Each structure stands twice: as structure tokens, then as C-alpha cells.
From TrEMBL:
Decapping enzyme for NAD-capped RNAs: specifically hydrolyzes the nicotinamide adenine dinucleotide (NAD) cap from a subset of RNAs by removing the entire NAD moiety from the 5'-end of an NAD-capped RNA. The NAD-cap is present at the 5'-end of some RNAs and snoRNAs. In contrast to the canonical 5'-end N7 methylguanosine (m7G) cap, the NAD cap promotes mRNA decay. Also acts as a non-canonical decapping enzyme that removes the entire cap structure of m7G capped or incompletely capped RNAs. It is found in: Nucleus. It catalyses: a 5'-end NAD(+)-phospho-ribonucleoside in mRNA + H2O = a 5'-end phospho-ribonucleoside in mRNA + NAD(+) + H(+); a 5'-end triphospho-ribonucleoside in mRNA + H2O = a 5'-end phospho-ribonucleoside in mRNA + diphosphate + H(+); a 5'-end (N(7)-methyl 5'-triphosphoguanosine)-ribonucleoside-ribonucleotide in mRNA + H2O = a (N(7)-methyl 5'-triphosphoguanosine)-nucleoside + a 5'-end phospho-ribonucleoside in mRNA + H(+). The lineage of its organism: Eukaryota, Fungi, Dikarya, Ascomycota, Pezizomycotina. This is Decapping nuclease. One of its GO terms (cellular component) is cytosol.
């Protein structure tokens, strides 16, 4: 389930605002007494509608290829290894996903993660070989938001971007997301208290979020199945649910002529991770929960709309399978279904037809091209889509520098590398 910070997610944590972060990209313009202030430049707009211009055969897609990975340990500390990888083992049907909620060890991001850990891994990768090149570097969650926006009428996002050395780096607008989460939390807590055991009451948002993590705990093992004891497997339902540890895959891909490096959290692997020296991609899985389907067509429509995000998240990282745990309204696991990621768009096309994968791919390809035409100079840009807005806007909010989007470590390494290459006469 996916943005470690990857973002992603897909299902991500609530956070509390950090004072002053909203002003970190404000331009510092010297005061003047003789000239009126310059009007702010108008945002450059990219309309989502009409979708017809994105329909038809999809743009060429370069198959995602993993170039690196890293982990976060039980304290959410960065580790440059595969220790965070977990292995799928089917959960027990009938399990109560509410069980253990009061012991949930919940990780909350307290500070803006930017792209720091992803860039740290790229620095390490470059120190072992040639420079990693791409038109875009970002978390998987940012591209998921863009890719699903043509069919998500409630879609909204705010991102920051900067151009450095020919690459556009994109990150989440962390302060805005914190403010949104705080507002939602305040709204929920202002409601009168509910009896959680009453069948008339819907579970809280916190409980529904927990169900997803509980399903992961019931479905994953820290070691391959053949190396895991029967006792451990049968007692997974008693384990404390903990979302501190994560495993992150770093891949290269391309939409048409636009190359990307993406980092994203991976829930687990189907059986065992393939040897990195083989051409076979890792058989990764994405774990999701959804309400069990009734006989009503509206239930099917609701589920197939959810499949849009499930598919996009998995498609972007090359995750081969989406495993959905169907649960009752009150969190009892009723069934588990395994979906081939590449077959999901066809399934929806012959079902409700509520979204089209080719249109999503073509929209993303066109929008990436739009960003390359818009973000051509130094400085910081804001990319935003308002709810029901129908238009993605790109505006420059800082004339110089990269804000904090690119870490000092990464900038320092690139400068050091360039100086070393100049000294040896190397090019590239």
C-alpha cells in the first residue's frame, strides 16, 4: 500500500502542521518605493476535459525496471538494504480486522520528508556507476494522483516542482496536506461520540485505515513461506500491527518520450524476490481492502472505481498482482481475490466501463510533456488541481533555487561529481 513517504499512496497517515512551512517557498523581493509591485504571473493551465483528446491506443510505455531499493526499520530509520521485504501468505478468512486496534503502533510523519530518502539512494547508486538520468524524479504517489485525475471527480492535489540539471523533481505539498488532515480530524472529532459496537454506526476513519494495515499483517511473513514455522503463521492475528517498517522500490520507466525515476512502497512479494542479475522483474504484490460486493450494480460500480487507484499504483511500479481482501461493513474478512494488474483495465472495460486505462496513460503522457514545456527555468513551481476544478494549474512561486525539494546531500554530490569530471576531462 503505497508513497513511503513513498508516497502513495495510496492510504496515508494523518499529520499535524509544522509552523512556518507554508512560507518556505515565498520569494524574497526587495522593497521599492518608486515602482508599483509586479502583478503575479497567471498560472499556466492544463484542462482535463474533454477526455476525447486522450482516447485511443495508449502511448508507448517503457516497462518499469527496478534499479534500487531500500528499507525503513521498526523505528522508521533508513536502511540501504532489502530487510523490509515481506512475503505473501494467504490470510485466514473470517478474521476480525478490528482486532488489536488499541495496540496499533502508528507511524506519523512529523516533518516534511521531501525526496530526501529517494535522493539518498540515488546518490549511493551513482557512486557505484554512471549518473542516473531521467526527465522526472518523484514518488510514485505524485504520478498516481495525476494519472487517476481524469476519472476522479473529487481529485485534488498540490505539489512543488523544480528543474535542476535537466531533470524536473516533484514532491508533495506537505504543509497543505497537513492542514487538510488536521481539518478532517477536527471535523471528525466534533461529531457526537458513537458506540463502536452498534450495528447502526459506521466505523471511524481511523478504524477503517487500521483495517488495511491489519490485512497486511495477516497476509505477510518476514521470511519466505518455506522458512516460516507453522506456529508463526497461525498466530499472525495476535501480532501488533505496526506501520513503521517499509520496503521501497526505485524504478525507471517512461511514458512516451518522458523518462521517470519513481520511488514507491511495496507491500510484499508473491513468493521470493528474483535475482537482480536476471531480466525477470520482482513478483511484487499490492494489498488492498474493499467492502464485500452485494448483488447491486452500484456496489460493482463503487468497487471498479476503487480499482482505478489500485491499478495505477501497481502499474507505475510494475507490481504484478493486486490482492483484495473483501470485508463486511464492520471489518470481518469475507474473501480474498487476486487480480492480475495488467488485466484490470480490460475487466473494467467489459464491466461498468467507468474508466479507461489508455486514456489515463495518454493524459499522463500529455501532462508530463506540458510540464517539460512549462518548467524550463530555475526556481520553484506549484502544480495544483482543485476539487471539481477540471484544470491543473502550474505557477512559479519562487524565482531562484530549488527550495528544499532537492536535498543538500544530492546537490553537493552532483557538484562534487561535476568538478571531478571537469578535472579528468570526462563528459556526461
Amino acid at each position: 500500500m503505497a508513497h513511503p513517504n513513498p508516497q502513495s499512496s495510496d492510504r496515508r497517515r494523518s499529520r499535524s502542521p509544522t509552523q512556518g512551512d507554508n512560507n518556505r517557498f515565498r520569494s524574497r523581493t526587495p522593497p521599492t518605493s518608486s515602482l508599483p509591485p509586479k502583478p503575479a504571473p497567471q498560472p499556466i493551465q492544463f484542462p482535463i476535459q474533454p477526455l476525447q483528446r486522450f482516447q485511443g491506443s495508449s502511448a508507448s510505455i517503457k516497462r518499469p525496471r527496478e534499479i534500487a531499493s531500500f528499507s525503513f526499520d521498526d523505528n522508521h530509520s533508513y536502511l540501504e538494504d532489502d530487510s523490509g521485504i515481506q512475503y505473501y501468505c494467504a490470510p485466514q478468512i473470517g478474521a476480525d480486522l478490528c482486532e488489536g486496534f488499541e495496540r496499533f503502533r502508528y507511524f506519523e510523519e512529523k516533518e516534511d520528508p521531501h525526496l530526501d530518502t529517494l535522493l539518498t539512494r540515488l546518490v549511493s547508486l551513482e557512486k557505484k556507476g554512471e549518473r542516473v538520468r531521467a526527465d522526472f524524479v518523484t514518488w510514485r504517489g505524485m504520478v498516481t494522483k495525476i494519472m487517476t485525475s481524469p476519472y476522479d471527480k473529487f481529485a485534488s492535489f498540490e505539489m512543488f516542482a523544480t528543474l535542476h540539471d535537466g531533470t524536473i523533481y516533484i514532491e508533495d505539498d506537505f504543509p497543505s496536506r497537513l492542514a487538510d488532515c488536521a481539518s478532517q480530524s477536527q471535523s471528525q472529532h466534533s461529531q457526537p461520540p458513537r458506540n463502536p459496537h452498534s450495528p447502526q454506526n459506521r466505523p471511524s476513519q481511523e478504524m477503517m485505515t487500521y483495517w488495511g494495515y491489519k490485512f497486511e499483517t495477516l497476509s505477510l511473513l518476514p521470511t519466505p513461506l518455506i522458512e516460516t514455522s507453522r506456529d508463526f503463521i497461525e498466530n499472525r492475528r495476535d501480532m501488533v500491527v505496526d506501520n513503521h517498517a517499509q520496503y521501497v522500490s526505485v524504478i525507471t520507466t517512461a511514458f512516451g518520450p518522458h523518462s521517470l525515476i519513481l520511488g514507491g512502497e511495496v507491500d510484499g512479494v508473491w513468493d521470493a524476490k528474483s535475482d537482480p542479475d536476471t531480466p525477470d522483474p520482482p513478483d511484487y504484490i499490492e494489498l488492498k481492502t474493499a467492502e464485500e460486493l452485494g448483488g447491486d450494480r452500484r456496489d460493482v460500480l463503487k468497487f471498479e472505481r476503487k480499482l482505478l487507484k489500485f491499478w495505477a499504483q501497481s502499474f507505475l511500479l510494475g507490481i504484478s498482482k493486486v490482492i483484495v481482501g473483501f470485508r463486511s461493513k464492520h471489518g470481518i474478512l469475507r474473501a480474498v481475490e487476486v487480480y492480475d494488474t495488467n488485466k484490470i483495465p480490460g475487466m473494467v472495460r467489459t464491466g461498468t466501463g467507468c474508466w479507461d486505462g489508455n486514456t489515463c496513460i495518454n493524459f499522463t503522457t500529455a501532462f508530463l510533456g506540458h510540464l517539460k514545456q512549462t518548467i524550463k527555468d530555475d526556481g520553484v513551481y506549484k502544480i495544483s488541481l482543485k476539487k471539481n476544478g477540471g484544470v491543473v494549474e502550474v505557477s512559479k512561486i519562487q524565482e531562484r533555487g530549488t527550495g528544499k525539494i532537492i536535498s543538500k546531500e544530492f546537490l553537493g554530490w552532483r557538484k562534487e561529481r561535476d568538478i571531478a569530471k571537469q578535472g579528468t576531462g570526462a563528459v556526461g
